[in-house]
Amino acid sequence: MEIKATAHKFGDNINTDDIIPARYLNTYDPKELARHCMEGADEEFVRKLGHPSARGHCIVAGKNFGCGSSREQAPLAIKGADISCVIAESFARIFYRNAINIGLPILESERASKRIDSGDEILIDLNRGKVTNLSKKENYKVQPFPEFIQEIIRAGGLMNYAKEKLKRKRLNP
Amino acid sequence: MGMTIAEKILARHCGKKSVAPGAFIEAKVDIALGNDVTAPLAIEEFRKVGGNKVFDADRVVLVPDHFTPNKDVKSAEQCQILRNFAREQGLRHYYEVGRVGIEHALLPEEGIVLPGDLVVGADSHTCTYGALGAFACGVGSTDLAFAMLTGKCWFRVPQTIKFVYKGKLNKWVSGKDLILYTIGDIGVDGALYKVMEFTGPIIKRLTMADRLTMCNMAVEAGAKSGIIEPDGETIEYIEARAERPYETIHGEKSARYARVVEYNCNKIEPQVAFPPLPSNTKPISSVGDISIDQVVIGSCTNGRIEDLRISAQVLKGRRVHPRVRLIIIPATPKIYREALSEGLLETFIDAGAVISAPTCGPCLGGHMGVLAEGEKAVATTNRNFTGRMGHPKAEIYLSNPAIAAASAIAGKITSPEAL
């Protein structure tokens, strides 16, 4: 799958209160959450996205993206805002699993995180694990997902993976 | 190669003789936990894949503690989802207001989590239970749905960092200060994807309350979990409350660690974490002159009876500064009742504090004491991120309960020594 997106750059240690402040956690509707996506880090972020366009948007951040609470509302808010991918130098572990489990594409790359600036046009090839910066004409290597995680992604998220396993179990008890 | 306690618990729960860091496993969980923020989504995911029955009605635990007593209609509806699900599934561990406490204080108190257990909770501070010699980690709502359905969860076996605490503890220094000092040293991603194992002569002498506080904040260094090997102190605590049989697990001498870090506690003062990160720590002697508007004593980090006792010790016979609002939140009804019978509540009220129902409340800016623009608060909670306790331009300073109580009296951040 190829994604073309405009980069929005953030720093290190963007926490889940930055991504979706706790006062909005009385819901888990992705569209409602999306209205406040990244509000703690940049109040203007949702306005900057403007109308969803074909080329989409991606978030590029530094170290430890998504640290803090376990709230799955964080990746849901990002997904709900039609952000097509998050690239970071590293992710906090609960955010990492939540993103995989709900099918939000995330990529770890130190160089991409350091080199990409806000406004850069990015081409992301999820299958090959390749990120191209069209604005700067550079390529970045990305850590490929381990086989186990690729299996969850192929199934379309953790619950679909569970469903497939349950079905298999019923067929071959 | 030997295994650490964390590796041994994980190996046992996936039916293997041994596991090594980096391996992906699917392991059986002993307890799957959710709260009013995370469980509604998990319940929806559970139903979406056609889930009818949870894997074990005794081992799925639902604790509506974040926005309770319900702060608004939407929160009330989230809690209703938990309530209906708990009734339908016949869950043994579901708690209504009046019986509900902050989950990570409640589960150990009730003897629900035991040494050797593998626990997943859709709450990042699930790592608290490592203090009981269990492997416990925070997961998301979809993970919880998967665990409720299958009784399992996927893990990548983490490496362990060993922290050794030596020397002696200075006055007013508690488990909270040791963990703040440690996070200040290694940073908020200093233990990313890893287990923090707390060891050494100082840890051996810590109360369970202090050990729970330390493991509670492991996640603030990015860790998957904090863990402490069970000893006599653990067994005494557990024996008084275990609701089922258990087996203690210990690491092997030949276990391999990613790193070993040693601290000389003689040099550690009470710590204050400045906004906006728990790693932004300073010793109390170099905090400077910071006036405050509010103090919160409570949370899954420091809302236990020991924390209330030390707060009362500092507050006894004194008055809260006229400019300051002191909010005290006993973490569970049992702690509330103990504080009542020990006369602590009277001390708090006489000092001019307000006592809240058990709730996570202001810790995550939910209710019961959110901050206005420009206000400053000292809190015994675990996170001081921007906007965490209300307005994005409010400031949160993290400390132990003694420093928090002393600061409420002085109207600025201070040590009980300076009163």
Strand order of the largest sheet of chain B: 4-3-2-5-6
Q: Describe the biggest sheet of chain B?
A: 5 strands, parallel
Q: Please give the alpha-carbon distance between the first and last residues of chain B.
A: 53 Å
Average pLDDT confidence of chain A is: 89
Work out the helicity level of chain A: 25-40%
The proportion of residues in beta strands of chain B is 15-25%
Helicity range of the residues of chain B?
25-40%
Unreliable runs of chain B, pLDDT <50, ≥5 residues?
Answer: none
Mean residue pLDDT of chain B: 97
Whole-angstrom Rg of chain A: 16 Å
What string, H for helix and E for strand, traces the elements of chain A in order?
Answer: EHHHEHEHEHEEEHH
Task: Classify the beta-strand content of chain A into a percent band.
Answer: 15-25%
User: How many helical stretches of chain A?
Assistant: 8
Overall spatial form of chain B: globular
CATH superfamily membership of the largest domain in chain B: Aconitase, domain 3
Walk me through what this model shows.
The complex is a heterodimer of chains A (173) and B (419). With 173 residues, chain A is α/β, with parallel strands linked by helices. Chain A has helices at 16-19, 30-34, 45-49, 73-80, 93-102, 110-115, 147-155, 158-171, and strands at residues 2-9, 57-61, 83-88, 106-108, 121-125, 130-133, 138-141. Chain A contains 8 helices and 7 strands; from the N terminus they run βαααβαβαβαβββαα. In chain A, α7 packs across α8 (158-171). The model of chain A has no long low-confidence stretch (mean pLDDT 89). Chain B contains 14 helices and 18 strands. Chain B folds into 2 domains: 5-262, Aconitase, domain 3; 270-413, 2-Layer Sandwich (Aconitase, domain 3), CATH 3.30.499. Chain B is of the alpha/beta class and 419 residues long. In chain B, α6 (175-186) packs parallel to α8. Classes of the chains: A alpha/beta (173), B alpha/beta (419).
